[in-house]
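Task: fold both queries, return tokens.
Query 1:
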Amino acid sequence: MKVPLTDLRAQYLTIRAEIDPAIQNVIDTSQFVLGAAVSAFEQAFAAAHGVQHCIGVGSGTDALHLALWAQGVGPGDSVVTTPFTFIATAEMISLAGAKPVFVDIDPRTLTMDASRLADLLSSQDRKGGIKAVIPVHLYGCPADMDGILALAGEYRVPVIEDACQAHLARFNGKPVGSFGSAACFSFYPAKNLGAYGEAGAITTQDDALDAKIRQLRDHGQSAKYVHDVPGHNYRMDGIQGAVLGVKMKYLSGWTTRRREIARLYRSRLGGIEELTLPFESPRLEQVYHQFVIRTKVRAGLEKHLSSKGISTALHYPIPLHLQQAYAGLGYKRGDFPVSEMAAEQCISLPLYPEMTGEQIDYVVSAVQQFFR
């Protein structure tokens, strides 16, 4: 049996009757950039995450840069995030002209460790230079927003949520994307809510920030050909808005199914001592963008599952502080031991809403067989 990590075609076939006309409508009306489909999606996504505003943009990477740019982060500033995330989180700090500053992750959730953030913010040599904190809701698991927001408030530093993998996730019953001054989402095709190409969004409760981001994403315009500030082209395509608008109607059900599959994995793999399964608690409503397990024998497990036709992935095998791109920051191996452990041990198993019971059984059986 072949089991892919995700199956985008299987999803498309379940909603084809709605997707195709939605795309055709954009073509018929020639609203290829922004337009009615994008506006309708923005409103639906904002409502689903309990916020006033959603601004559709070209990608999750665009969203991260815009959120920093609109809040005045620039050269000479520092922005705190974790080294265990996709590089776009740190790249956009660099693009804004600022310096990424890393703090290690919690060994249970693999998200920003609030106690480490406290140590960093209280250190004398860091005071005054930090202009934002970006916690990452990694793999669909919310970060400790209570602890992070308390510290950010004490030090008067805005929080920008990297929610690119966490559509509809909740912390203490409240949707991610509604905690910080702004939050950034990705709709890369393989995400829980995926476009048919690149797309992203920013959510915020701040009316003024919403207006500023909308202006910056459209070449700094306040009206057609009236440019108040230098901006950029970070607009969402109309076709992506149409696709996402259709998919929004199914996202809640797909999320429920992801959690059901995760529950099956957890119940059947929980007795294997060599595995660490994703952390859960009443405070964290995960959405399982990835089902990530940890094991010290990852290479062997990866090879075994591949031989059985089961696709896996390593998210992420090299932490950012050890990437050549950030060698200039001066970090070294051992500076962030939890991130380094996760990079060496994490492996993602197949999980997508269209997975069949037979496929789930096959993956579970193959993992059990390896450890036997």
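Query 1 returned. Query 2:
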Amino acid sequence: MDITATLAPKSNQMNADDLIVGSRTIIVTNVDVAIDAEQPVAIYFQGDNGRPWRPCKSMRRVLASAWGPDSSQYVGRGITLFRDPGALYAGQQVGGIRLSHLSHIDGPLTVMLTASRGKRLPYKVLPLRAPSPAAPAAAAAPPASATEPGTAQRLPVGRTTVAADPQPAPATPADGRRSAPAPVRRSGPGAAPAADAPIPGLD
């Protein structure tokens, strides 16, 4: 049984420990902004169970750079979040939530973020895209029995082999002894080949 649900900390918001087993993509349902609060932005999402993500200042700057400052435009958009174990708080590595992908951006986005006093570092975000539809399955090769002797059989990867001509039954000499059967001719040194299987710390 999956124990992921038992790992969630008792908290009124999503935190880094919620992502200890891997990243998560969320779809925004609402954004609350309280300018004077210590954590002024709360991003609610599908399946949040009333526990929003409250992005740190660096991630708020990334969101504003990518989507603009109007948080009402964020609803329905997607964000991939991950746990950064090296994130600092009050000089201590406590871990934090970072975003790696965003929907509604045309391509990779780089934002310069403050890492420390007088030092800025580039932070790269990738576009979040829906998975592409699966490619149609390749047509199966015809069974060997459907190939006439002496004709070419086209395999799925473009290889060609020639079916061996049938050999006549060995003749029986007058003295009753059987002669050894004639060897079967092949298109190469071995049997016909089988078809290949389808083909750093921020505030």
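Both queries returned. Flag for query 2: Helices lie at 57-67.
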